[in-house]
Fold this sequence. Notes:
With 439 residues, chain A is of the alpha/beta class. Chain A is built from ten helices and 21 strands.
Amino acid sequence: MSDAAFTAFAGWLSESGEGSRPDWLESQRLLARERLADLGVPDRKTEAWRYTSLKGLMEQGFGRTGETMAALQPDDLEEVLVPGLDAQRILLVNGRYLPELSGQGDLPAGVRIGGLRELLASEPDRLREHLNAVAETDAQPLFAALNTAGLDDGLVLWVGRGVVLERPIELVHLSVGLDEPRVAQPRHLVVLEDGAQATLIERYVSLGDSIYCTNTVLELSLGRDALLRHDRIQMESANAFHISGLYLTQGADSRYLGVNIGLGASWSRTDLNCRFQGEHAECDLQGLYVAGDGQLMDYHLDVQHTQPNCNSREIFKGILHGHGRAVFDGRVFVAREAQKTDAAMSNRNLLLSESAEVDTKPQLEINADDVKCSHGTTVGQIEPEMLFYLRSRGIGASLARRMLCLGFAEEIIQRLSAEALRDHVSERVGRRLESAPMN
Amino acid sequence: MLSVKGLTANVGDKEILKGLDLEIAPGEVHAIMGPNGAGKSTLSHVLSGREGYEVTGGSATFEGRDLLELEPEERAQLGLFLAFQYPVELPGVNNTYFLKAALNSIRKARGEEELDAVSFLRLIKEKLKILHLDDSLLKRAVNAGFSGGEKKRNEIFQMALLEPKLAILDETDSGLDIDALRVVANGVNALRSPERSMIVVTHYQRLLDYIQPDYVHVLAKGRIIRSGGKELALELEEKGYGWIDAEGQAA
Ligand SMILES: Nc1ncnc2c1ncn2[C@@H]1O[C@H](COP(=O)(O)OP(=O)(O)OP(=O)(O)O)[C@@H](O)[C@H]1O
Ligand SMILES: [Mg+2]
């Protein structure tokens, strides 16, 4: 792919000059812009893009999501809410934070939640230390750099030392169809200071099935002994492009429990990057993806065990039906000094049709000698004995298959932080399987 | 009720059932005994429609219908039930959901109304009690992580719930402790009725002390080689299978 194609694709970037930003941020944006030019557009020879083509994305004539917002009524929201979920809601529409439609609630002292734009204006110094520090600007890959180059708005969640935030924060990304395809680039910063605890539910939803692109970057910084539960649920429109980069650093004794559910978008790419900065930290990355006709879901994990005595789990499961495609590229790196590392990665896939496809590539790169590391992948079909067991109880073949698929998915769904969310995801996965032809 | 005539079946190239005959009338309990590898489970599987067996000859009819041309779920809907020798674990499939799907699929196929949640739960609690099973079982995944004995009890619990016309119990007694054996046998006996028939596959007389059969058959090398009353089981226990083999040869 030519760089001219990329310039054409990212033409909207130049329109994003409005607003006043601190100088340090302006220079980061500039730096990212230069980096974009240096990086160029990866082709299939680039390892990170070996199985996933950028062609379809680059050929879209995107504009940037500007100030003009589709008129949105509170009623419109009903459609995309999770019934019975008790959480403090933050709403972003087409990448822009909407305080007036976000939930209000009393926050414990020491907790700060707000729009990135707003906080950049009021408390820039608080942000400076972390923004583009968890994901360092001069190391960002293409789409993260693109996000930084246009860095503008998103969510800031800041939980102070020792504060336990009981109520989950629900971050809803709502995309509303506009006349022309647009790119939204929300940028989020989550900081848990030492001993802080929080639950973040991050959801991507749409009204209608229009074409758009979300390119989001999250920087998460966990202090010593902090705990973050993080549910991420991607249910973008069937025609959307979804790119998401998560950059996580973990202090000593901290715990991160992340569950990634992928159901939507026609083309999606998720990068999960974790780096330990202290000992005895634990990182749990789980995922479930369901891809059918016209869908590609690409997951890249990069877990850096650069400290001794840390644990990580990478457990991803996929259900592929119709012409669905998925990519799982999981990398666990263990540095020489990271003794007593305990890492286990698994990727299991259920292929429900002959035209479904998955490329799975787990990689362990171990440089220490006293470690416990394992990985395993499977690509298989529904077990005939299980199917027979259900059918022998009078259950028809198609319902039986659906029950087994849902059972396969349930292991991951059950890891979600709230019952209402688990029910919601189960229901959506079930609905998807109902419409998926199985043979 | 069930009529099997000259049934022959292969797994791959290997012939396992070699001309098997069996007649079961409503209300009868038939015990089938026989050495390991004789084809007892194969018979159960062929009757209930499991894949992987090729029926090469003979027939099996259930209440006048040709069993062998039906899908497994259709056979179950007609009232056939197999308690598995090795119940299958279904991780992630919730037991309550499973039981409800099974019961309602069968009811629907028979043109009956599906049970609502309340009546279903009431029914389930009642059946749990018969098998001395704990409520907590309902929240778990089907058979996943169950002990051997729990799995067997769960099979009979499902049978109690689905109320089949013909139940095939394939070594339901193996792996049960003495108390569990009594509970399971009581559960089975509670289901005995003039309309309901059973095939009880077992290696041990002890189960037959509890579930008294009307007939005992010896299945060896793919055939029923001897049939008799319940005293045949006692004779087998004493003399082993070699005795029949030898007699059979002589005859
Ligand atoms: N899928 C299979 N592939 C190959 N051989 C098979 C298969 N299933 C059954 N067999 C063979 O068929 C024969 C009969 O097996 P079956 O399980 O019916 O015996 P059984 O009478 O139930 O024995 P047991 O008392 O040990 O349960 C055995 O020799 C067994 O190895
Ligand atoms: Mg057997």
